[in-house]
Amino acid sequence: MQNRKLQGIIVPLITPLATPETIDRAGTCRMVRRVIEGGVDAVFLLGSTGEGPALSRHARCEFIETAVEAAAGAVPLLAGISGASGVEAIEAGKFAARSGVSAVVAAPPCYLPASEKELLVYYERLAGEIGLPLFLYNMPALTRVNVTPELAVKLAGRENIAGYKDSSGDLDAFRRAVTLLGGRPDFSLLIGPEHLTLAALRMGGDGGVNGGANLRPELFAALCRAVREGAAPEHIDALQKEIVELGRFYATAPGAPGVIRGLKYELARLGVIQNQLAFPALPLVDAPWCSGH
After folding, report:
1. Which of 115, 130, 149, 292 could form a disulfide with 93 if both were Cys (CB 3.0 to 4.6 A apart)?
2. For residues 33 and 70, is the Cβ–Cβ distance under 8 A?
3. Count of alpha carbons within 13 angstroms of residue 55, beta-carbon side
């Protein structure tokens, strides 16, 4: 991935667990193969949907190794290295690099908010020491720090800074990012909230990092392909409607925890994984929706 821009649908993979503390290796292999066969363009490990910051170092390492083996180079793998410690993020990134992932993704350190100057130093050091393409990750609802498009501009020309993933839900801010950075051959602009992916693509964004692709990877891949190929507007709008309805289906409560519970419940019902969440989160045991989706 060193010399090519990342575009399309990047699935923020859920992390299959055998217990709240341990990785389900067989479930991980099934999930990786499932989304690749569904047509996604890349797989993002240990993001918010993947409960990355809630897992132990041992579990994260085991998950990365298992996913790399299962993917067998079919698509790029990105590893999330977000958490509270900058030093641990560097260590996690170096492990990911040794394990064969294609890039790393880092949100600002949580708990003790960093200033803009500190974020510049943080991302420059990560990019320099890890040695892989690095994606800036804006998730202010969870980190309480906003990685703005203007900050992304300051970092975009630095070595190994490869892109910007915006999960703020602020479409106007993403539009600013496209205005400032869109069209660069060496920098990807990716949006998180899946109901905004179509709008982001139409304004010049490069793709979506969409949790619903865990459940229906072929649907999200079809949307991105339809936009890329200039399909009829009514066909694109029909796919978008289906994506919005899917999001209502599995989002059991606002925010990341509700989405993770809904996705894991439904994937367990389908026999792909076990219905386990990382400690201390509790799984959904009685879904409010009908089972025949």
Report:
1. 130
2. yes
3. 31
CA distance 61 to 69: 13
Q: How far is CA 59 from CA 209, 213, 263, 278, 291, in A?
A: 23, 23, 20, 10, 31
pLDDT, one tens digit per residue, over 88-114 is 999 999 999 999 999 999 999 999 999
Dihedral through CA 79, CA 225, CA 201, CA 11, nearest 10?
A: -20
161 strand-pairing partners: 134
What's the distance, CA 220 to chain centroid? 14
Contacts of 175 (CB under 8 A, 6+ apart): 203
Q: Indicate the DSSP class of residue 195.
A: G
225-269 pLDDT, tens digit per residue, is 999 999 999 999 999 999 999 988 777 666 678 899 999 999 999
pLDDT at 186: 92
Nearest to 202 by CA among 181, 180, 173, 223: 223
Separation CA 97–CA 78 (nearest Å): 10
CA distance 1 to 195: 27
